[in-house]
Specification:
- It is a single chain.
- By secondary structure, the protein is of the alpha+beta class.
- It has a domain of about 280 residues: Cytochrome P450 (Cytochrome p450), CATH 1.10.630.
- About 45% of the residues lie in helices and about 10% in strands.
- Helix 7 crosses helix 8.
- The protein is globular and about 65 Å long.
- It starts with a strand and ends with a helix.
- About 40% of the residues are buried.
Length: about 450
């Protein structure tokens, strides 16, 4: 890969231009990481359009905070519109502000602490289905577990495995279509009777039916639980009108998708890294066994799991699920020395930023201890697993709690060993997930006693 033009990275009014991105889609992670060598802002082409890649963490932070009003969410998020609605992750302007204020109570710290027992109960139910010596598709298991937690906690429902798998497959289909349509923006293809489009329509039907059933059950129950679905059903806009059905459906589906995917992918990578670093696995087991020696996991005991939390933190750095984030300029914008017109497409890669050797010492090393308080910490904008500013993920606290709970529960019962001969590589789709992660479950602790009995 060589630049099409060798322009000085900081020449006023001129940006380095790197070759057409389409032939490099199979190597897109390496491509995004290599772009930092060409300057803070680099121009590439995706299809017929120029795209500006922001490599500087300081400029990314500026986009997310001081200049956030100058940008909308951009092409990728526009492709994630479901059922004609604009859910919180893609809503803009006043609509985003109102929707975030509406949903924020469900994600307050105190409310998240109240969810811990349900998270644990749901995860324990999934873990009981594992057997000693069973070969697991770890990513799939983590997706089902994380999805079950979201549905139990926020929607007060927990479907059986087969319906849950259908929902998960539907979400994955929607995500795959979104990233494909964002990278190859030929809108006419979206209306053709192609196999991928038919599969997407089927997935949307499954998701709509599932979420509609959840909403209908809440409406029919005079004592419906005080959860996120009830919050949306009770909401009124500034004119006193309720949200329409499509808005409620799109909001619930977006939360289901976003709340499951990041945690599941993070968990899969975490247990992959533990299998490669037995010293870290042993420290995790020792910590979990010590904390749980006097009783079950509770919200009060989560702060005692310091190493467990650092494992999650480091996994979100080394294997950040977001390989690309998009924005579009609403007005002409200056970023550093770059002057961008209104309507310009921007992207950046948290995955690449988190692996930048100028920001992290030995960046490809899995080292949870780099997050010990006595260690030097990365500069502002260098660690952004959930974004920053007004558009920071509303569920970041939920995800931290969920990931810590799931890591501790799995480690207290099981050791996951890689299947010999399996090669694991990162696949950049809507998130960066492992290509194939099959592992064998070995019982430990209470699970070992149960298996022996």
């Amino acid at each position: 890969m060589t630049p099409d033009a060798t322009l000085p990275p900081h020449a006023p009014g001129r940006l380095p231009v790197v070759g057409h991105v389409m032939p490099l889609l199979r190597n897109r992670l390496a491509f995004m990481q290599q772009l930092r060598d060409h300057g803070d802002v680099v121009q590439i082409r995706v299809g017929p359009r120029p795209v500006f890649v922001v490599n500087s963490p300081e400029l990314v932070w500026e986009i997310l905070t001081a200049q956030s009003a100058n940008f909308n969410k951009g092409r990728l998020f526009d492709k994630l519109r479901l059922f004609g609605g604009s859910p919180l992750p893609i809503a803009e302007g006043q609509q985003h502000l109102q929707r975030r204020r509406l949903m924020q109570p469900a994600f307050h710290r105190e409310r998240i602490n109240s969810y811990i027992d349900t998270m644990i109960t749901t995860a324990e139910g999934a873990l009981r289905s594992w057997g000693h010596g069973a070969r697991l598709d770890v990513l799939n298991e983590m997706q089902l577990m994380a999805q079950g937690v979201v549905m139990s906690v926020l929607f007060s429902t927990n479907p059986d495995r087969d319906p849950a798998q259908a929902v998960m497959n539907g979400v994955d289909t929607v995500f795959q279509a979104a990233i494909r349509r964002a990278v190859v923006p030929v809108s006419a293809w979206e209306r053709l009777p192609l196999p991928g489009n038919r599969k997407l329509r089927t997935a949307n039907t499954v998701l709509r039916r599932t979420v509609s059933d959840i909403v209908a059950a809440h409406r029919a129950d005079p004592e419906a639980p005080d959860d996120l679905v009830s919050l949306l059903l009770d909401a009124r806009d500034e004119d006193g009108l309720p949200l329409d059905d499509d808005e409620i459906l799109s909001e619930i589906t977006a939360l289901l998708a976003a709340g499951s995917e990041t945690t599941a992918v993070t968990m899969a990578w975490l247990f992959h890294e533990l299998s490669r670093h037995p010293d870290q696995e042993e420290r995790l087991h020792q910590e979990v066994d010590t904390v749980l020696a006097d009783g079950p996991l509770t919200a009060d005991r989560l702060p005692l799991l310091g190493h467990t939390r650092r494992l999650v933190t480091e996994t979100l750095r080394l294997h950040n699920p977001a390989w690309v984030v998009t924005r579009e300029t609403n007005v002409p914008v200056r970023l550093g020395t770059a002057h961008l017109p209104a309507g310009a497409d921007l992207i950046w890669s948290p995955y690449a930023i988190h692996r930048d050797p100028e920001l992290y010492r030995d960046p490809l090393r899995f080292d949870p201890d780099r997050w010990l308080p006595e260690r030097p910490q990365p500069p502002r904008g260098a660690y952004i697993p959930f974004g920053a500013g007004k558009r920071m993920c509303i569920g970041d606290g939920f995800t931290w709690a969920e990931a810590t709970v799931l890591t501790a529960l799995v480690a207290s019962r099981w050791t996951l060993r890689p299947v010999p001969g399996t090669t694991v590589r990162p696949v950049p789709a809507i998130t960066v997930h492992p290509s194939s992660l099959h592992m064998t479950a070995e019982a430990r602790g209470r699970a070992a006693v149960r298996e022996a009995a």
